[in-house]
């Protein structure tokens, strides 16, 4: 039996992604938690074995809550999952688009719908998930507030879709990661995520790291800089390569970067699943 956590309540995109991705694992206990940081903390405290969390969206970009939680708790990535996201404006039964003055959702979902929200002059209200936003709109009975969420959450809570596909671009995908505390086994993995902390700040430090990957013909699929928190302007880099952790060229790249004095910490090697 494995315990898997995701962002609740029922009806989140995280739930849809987790149920689909782990559909073949018969013996699973699901644990729903109130926020993305809580989900990651549950893995770090061994309350659950794994979790499914969003890390990147094609419109809104990287989800820093997830990245910072991964680093804070020193967690590992064992899979990444790409999931199509269609966002709808969801209101109480009887309310009309013309009644809506405020919109409520989790920040990444709001960031995916900025143009629509601006066009309609809607006031923003933040929630911990799309489903939490939908549930609170339902519980308030308020006709002037709508949530942004999935079609299935509207159905689940007896709400109505006031406007479909309110995201800024019709093709919208969120990438989730399956996170655990231990590194996963290396079988047929095509990508590697690592955290590189430069030994010191000097002109060209990032390009010295990137040059190693380009010299070895390793393509990068993702890069994100996060502050070390120690002083203003001091950053560390999360880099995802299109090469498995057991490939010789990856091993070589890591060794060279380490000889520069930089710290390299591998968060995981994995293969992408498109749901
Ligand atoms: O609130 C949800 O439904 C979630 O699963 C979170 C989340 C996110 O934070 O990116 C996941 C996918 C979508 O991009 C919108 C929301």
Q: Could you characterize the architecture of this molecule?
A:
This protein has three domains: 2-85 and 172-180, Periplasmic binding protein-like II (D-Maltodextrin-Binding Protein, domain 2, 3-Layer(aba) Sandwich); 88-163, Periplasmic binding protein-like II (D-Maltodextrin-Binding Protein, domain 2), CATH 3.40.190.10; 191-274, ACT domain (Alpha-Beta Plaits). It contains nine helices and 16 strands. It has helices at residues 13-21, 36-44, 64-72, 107-111, 114-119, 130-140, 151-156, 205-215, 248-259, and strands at residues 2-7, 28-33, 50-57, 61-62, 76-84, 88-91, 102-105, 123-126, 145-149, 160-163, 173-180, 191-197, 220-227, 235-241, 263-270, 272-274. Helix 8 packs antiparallel against helix 9. It binds prephenic acid (PRE). Residues 7, 12-14, 54, 57, 63, 85, 106, 108-109, 129-131, 174 line the site of prephenic acid.
Structure characteristics:
single chain; 275 residues; alpha/beta; D-Maltodextrin-Binding Protein, domain 2; Alpha-Beta Plaits; five-stranded mixed sheet; 9 helices; 34% strand; globular
Secondary structure blueprint with pairings:
Elements: E1 2-7, H1 13-21, E2 28-33, H2 36-44, E3 50-57, E4 61-62, H3 64-72, E5 76-84, E6 88-91, E7 102-105, H4 107-111, H5 114-119, E8 123-126, H6 130-140, E9 145-149, H7 151-156, E10 160-163, E11 173-180, E12 191-197, H8 205-215, E13 220-227, E14 235-241, H9 248-259, E15 263-270, E16 272-274
Parallel strand pairs: 1-2, 1-3, 5-16, 7-8, 7-9
Antiparallel strand pairs: 3-4, 3-11, 5-11, 6-9, 6-10, 12-14, 12-15, 13-14
The protein binds prephenic acid.
């Amino acid at each position: 039996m494995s315990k898997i956590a995701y962002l609740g309540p029922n009806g989140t995109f995280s739930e849809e992604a987790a149920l689909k991705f782990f559909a073949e694992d018969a013996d699973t206990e699901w644990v729903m938690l109130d926020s993305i940081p809580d989900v990651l903390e549950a893995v770090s405290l061994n309350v659950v074995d794994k979790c499914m969390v969003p890390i990147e969206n094609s419109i809104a970009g990287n989800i820093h809550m997830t990245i910072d939680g991964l680093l804070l708790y020193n967690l590992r990535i064992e899979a990444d999952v790409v999931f199509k996201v269609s966002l709808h404006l969801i209101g109480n039964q009887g309310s009309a688009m013309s009644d809506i003055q405020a919109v409520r959702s989790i920040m990444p979902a709001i960031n995916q719908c900025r143009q629509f929200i601006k066009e309609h002059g809607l006031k923003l209200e933040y929630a911990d998930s799309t489903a939490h936003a939908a549930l609170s709109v339902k519980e308030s009975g308020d006709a002037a507030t709508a949530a942004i969420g999935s079609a299935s959450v509207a159905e689940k809570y007896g709400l109505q879709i006031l406007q479909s596909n309110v995201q800024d671009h019709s093709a919208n995908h969120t990438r989730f990661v399956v996170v655990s505390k231990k590194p996963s086994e290396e079988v047929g993995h095509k990508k590697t995520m690592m955290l590189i902390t430069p030994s010191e700040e000097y002109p060209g430090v990032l390009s010295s790291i990137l040059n190693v990957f380009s010299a070895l013909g390793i393509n990068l699929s993702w890069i994100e800089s996060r502050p070390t928190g120690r002083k203003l302007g001091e950053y560390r880099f999360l880099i995802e390569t299109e090469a498995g952790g057991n490939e010789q060229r990856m091993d070589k790249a890591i060794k060279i970067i380490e000889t520069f004095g930089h710290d390299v910490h591998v968060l995981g090697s994995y293969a992408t699943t498109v749901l």
